[in-house]
């Protein structure tokens, strides 16, 4: 047997992924989303709305393709906002940039300005180096298309409903929690909106999927420098504390719920081999399926950090949530039922929760919105089922014909959900009842205090 260290990393075994894919394929054959029985908007209005979306489909695709070709990262999306504004102005609409104290956020609305209010959201930030590998170009286009479609419907039928559709541009979802920044500036208040809707690009049409809550932790260990050869006993090694923490997190994983995740890196570990490390720094993502379990996991991680500092004899600074924490998504099934019915009109069949394994789970700042007001965050297929988010392959799909079709179908779906909500009082009551039964509005900003 050759025990020589390889020059290249070994190839990860894909057997587990293949089993997940096989299990998903089997569940797809037998599971179907069963929607609560709600009427929604009058059928003639729904047909006309769908026709309007077809008529503005070129604008929807134009935005998706433009953003795909011109990706901008978190809080730098000036060109993206300008393009959305350009297309809105073609339709006699405009937006207010810098909404809620966030420079690349925006807000606009149509309707009466009172009565029931629902918000449709667009994300448009990209990832560094790999562009729109999360499909936010498609997501931006769906929100914009839904807003324009409702505005055009109101021009034709001013009495279609007595209520308001808000359109919010929400930047910096990728790791910066842009929606929470907006919320702390006054967005997503239950006093202003009754529900919020958006979608996500994906490799499946999913009515619902698990989204984990996420917190960011930064740790700095402070030791005592010393000559690593002549007087190491006079030092206190901050790198030792980082090493102990990394090991402790690995051991903690055995006692975590299987869906929980911790990712840790050492961002600073010393300056020279001959010096006992005086300062070491680490960063973590801590994720969990429920708000309460996320809080508990955070406490356990902090205990590991403090214990490592005690063992190494170093000081420690612990800084949570450099970027605001994000909660899991709480889906409102009454609203979701209208999305599913709308997508079935487009020839899609959104799969229910549980068809795709919850092991394949990420995070989104829409979770923070969903604990303030009722919301949905379904996923729309724009890529092959084997595609993973945050890859170059997914970025290519987001700019493909499948991405364009997803943008148009998604725009109609969001517009239809908004129209259903604004025209159907029984649906609104059911949405509110479900939301309150699930716990109602949460004080997200102070949840981890």
Automatic annotation (TrEMBL):
<keyword id="KW-0378">Hydrolase</keyword>
<dbReference type="Pfam" id="PF01546">
    <property type="entry name" value="Peptidase_M20"/>
</dbReference>
<dbReference type="GO" id="GO:0071713">
    <property type="term" value="F:para-aminobenzoyl-glutamate hydrolase activity"/>
</dbReference>
<dbReference type="GO" id="GO:0046657">
    <property type="term" value="P:folic acid catabolic process"/>
</dbReference>
<dbReference type="GO" id="GO:0016805">
    <property type="term" value="F:dipeptidase activity"/>
</dbReference>
<dbReference type="InterPro" id="IPR002933">
    <property type="entry name" value="Peptidase_M20"/>
</dbReference>
<protein>
    <recommendedName>
        <fullName>Peptidase M20 domain-containing protein 2</fullName>
    </recommendedName>
</protein>
<dbReference type="InterPro" id="IPR011650">
    <property type="entry name" value="Peptidase_M20_dimer"/>
</dbReference>
<dbReference type="GO" id="GO:0005737">
    <property type="term" value="C:cytoplasm"/>
</dbReference>
<dbReference type="InterPro" id="IPR036264">
    <property type="entry name" value="Bact_exopeptidase_dim_dom"/>
</dbReference>
<dbReference type="InterPro" id="IPR017144">
    <property type="entry name" value="Xaa-Arg_dipeptidase"/>
</dbReference>
<feature type="domain" description="Peptidase M20 dimerisation">
    <location>
        <begin position="217"/>
        <end position="307"/>
    </location>
</feature>
<dbReference type="InterPro" id="IPR052030">
    <property type="entry name" value="Peptidase_M20/M20A_hydrolases"/>
</dbReference>
<dbReference type="InterPro" id="IPR017439">
    <property type="entry name" value="Amidohydrolase"/>
</dbReference>
<dbReference type="Pfam" id="PF07687">
    <property type="entry name" value="M20_dimer"/>
</dbReference>
<comment type="similarity">
    <text>Belongs to the peptidase M20A family.</text>
</comment>
């Amino acid at each position: 047997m050759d025990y020589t260290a390889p020059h290249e990393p070994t190839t990860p075994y894909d057997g587990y992924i293949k089993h997940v894919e096989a299990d998903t394929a089997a569940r797809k054959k037998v599971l179907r989303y069963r929607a609560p029985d709600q009427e929604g908007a009058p059928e003639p209005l729904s047909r006309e709305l769908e026709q309007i979306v077809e008529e503005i489909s070129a604008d929807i695709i134009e935005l998706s393709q433009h953003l795909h070709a011109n990706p901008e990262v978190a809080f730098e999306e000036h060109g993206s906002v300008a393009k959305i504004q350009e297309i809105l102005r073609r339709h006699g609409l405009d937006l207010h940039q810098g909404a809620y104290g966030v420079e690349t956020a925006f807000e606009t609305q149509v309707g009466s300005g009172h009565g029931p209010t629902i918000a449709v959201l667009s994300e448009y930030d990209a990832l560094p180096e790999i562009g729109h590998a999360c499909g936010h170009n498609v997501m931006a286009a769906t929100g914009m298309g839904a807003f324009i479609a409702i505005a055009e419907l109101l021009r034709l039928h001013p009495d279609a409903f007595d209520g308001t559709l808000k359109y919010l541009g929400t930047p910096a979802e990728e790791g910066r929690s842009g929606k929470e920044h907006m919320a702390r500036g006054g967005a997503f208040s239950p006093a202003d909106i009754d529900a919020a809707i958006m979608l996500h690009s994906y490799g499946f049409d999913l009515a619902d999927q698990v989204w984990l809550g996420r917190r960011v932790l930064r740790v700095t260990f402070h030791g005592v420098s010393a000559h690593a050869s002549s007087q190491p006993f006079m030092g206190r090694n901050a790198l030792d504390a980082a090493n102990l923490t990394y090991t402790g997190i690995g051991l903690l994983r055995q006692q975590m719920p299987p869906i929980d995740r911790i990712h840790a890196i050492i961002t600073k570990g010393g300056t020279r081999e001959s010096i006992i490390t005086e300062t070491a720094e680490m960063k973590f993502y801590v994720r969990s399926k429920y708000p309460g379990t996320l809080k508990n996991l955070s406490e356990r991680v902090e205990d590991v950090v403090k214990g490592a500092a005690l063992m190494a004899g170093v000081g420690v600074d612990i800084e949570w949530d450099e970027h605001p924490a994000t909660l899991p998504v709480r889906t409102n099934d009454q609203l979701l039922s209208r999305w599913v019915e709308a997508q079935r009109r487009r020839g899609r069949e959104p799969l229910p929760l549980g068809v795709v394994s919850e092991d394949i789970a990420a995070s989104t700042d829409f979770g923070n919105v969903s604990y303030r007001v009722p919301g949905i965050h379904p996923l729309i297929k724009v890529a092959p089922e084997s595609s993973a988010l945050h890859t170059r392959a997914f970025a290519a799909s987001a700019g493909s014909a499948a991405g364009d079709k997803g943008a148009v179908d998604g725009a109609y779906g969001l517009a239809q959900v908004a129209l259903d909500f604004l025209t159907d009082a029984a649906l609104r009551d059911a949405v509110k009842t479900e939301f309150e039964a699930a716990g109602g509005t949460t004080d997200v900003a102070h949840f981890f205090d």
